């Protein structure tokens, strides 16, 4: 299975004092162990570096975080071509999404895969055109599936 993962999930995974750190870490690890493929627009690296730098004040940590994500074998960064930019533009206008949020939604819609995000506004506004999950909802779903299989 493939999913597009928003920067909000990656940042919470990388910043230990983030309220969603533990759940993001657990979900990303479980998903990767289960041979899940992670997708994101190339913009992910910019967003992660900026957020880690702003939140921690540590420039070296921000650079390292972006490099670490870029080297993950289970992550494929999707290049933004004119078609995806056009789709993101329409999505931003039609649903009132912020620019970067619309890019993630456009990638998920184009590839016909779900989006995983902690961003409530992005989730609520884009559910009309794509399937959207939070890491905790996916963890709960996996736990329930595991319980059903164990019975």
Q: In short, what is this structure?
A:
With 151 residues, the chain is an alpha/beta fold. It has helices at residues 7-14, 21-33, 43-56, 59-70, 82-95, 99-111, 120-126, 135-150; strands spanning 2-5, 37-41, 75-78, 115-116, 132-133.
How would you describe this protein?
The chain is an alpha/beta fold. The chain has one domain: 5'-nuclease (Rossmann fold, 3-Layer(aba) Sandwich). The protein is about 65% helix and about 10% strand. It is built from 8 helices and 5 strands, in the order E-H-H-E-H-H-E-H-H-E-H-E-H. A 5-stranded parallel β-sheet has the order 3-2-1-4-5. Strand 4 (about 115), helix 7 (about 120-125) and strand 5 form a beta-alpha-beta unit. The longest helix has 16 residues, at about 135-150.
Q: What is the element layout, followed by pairings?
A:
Elements: E1 2-5, H1 7-14, H2 21-33, E2 37-41, H3 43-56, H4 59-70, E3 75-78, H5 82-95, H6 99-111, E4 115-116, H7 120-126, E5 132-133, H8 135-150
Parallel strand pairs: 1-2, 1-4, 2-3, 4-5
Helix pairs in contact: 1-2, 1-3, 2-8, 3-4, 5-6
Unreliable parts: 146-151
Cα distance spanning the termini: 24 Å
Counting DSSP E segments of at least 2 residues, the number of strands comes to 5
Could you estimate the helical fraction of the residues in percent?
55-70%
Instruction: Quickly count the domains.
Output: 1
Q: What name does the CATH topology carry?
A: Rossmann fold
Note the overall shape: globular
N-to-C series of helices and strands: EHHEHHEHHEHEH
Count of helical regions? 8
Provide the gyration radius in Å: 15 Å
Q: Which homologous superfamily in CATH is the superfamily? A: 5'-nuclease
Mean pLDDT: 92
Reported for the largest beta sheet, the result is: 5 strands, parallel
**Share of β-strand residues:** 5-15%
Walk across the major sheet and give the strand order.
3-2-1-4-5
- Helix/strand-derived class? alpha/beta
Label the CATH architecture: 3-Layer(aba) Sandwich
Any idea of the CATH class? Alpha Beta
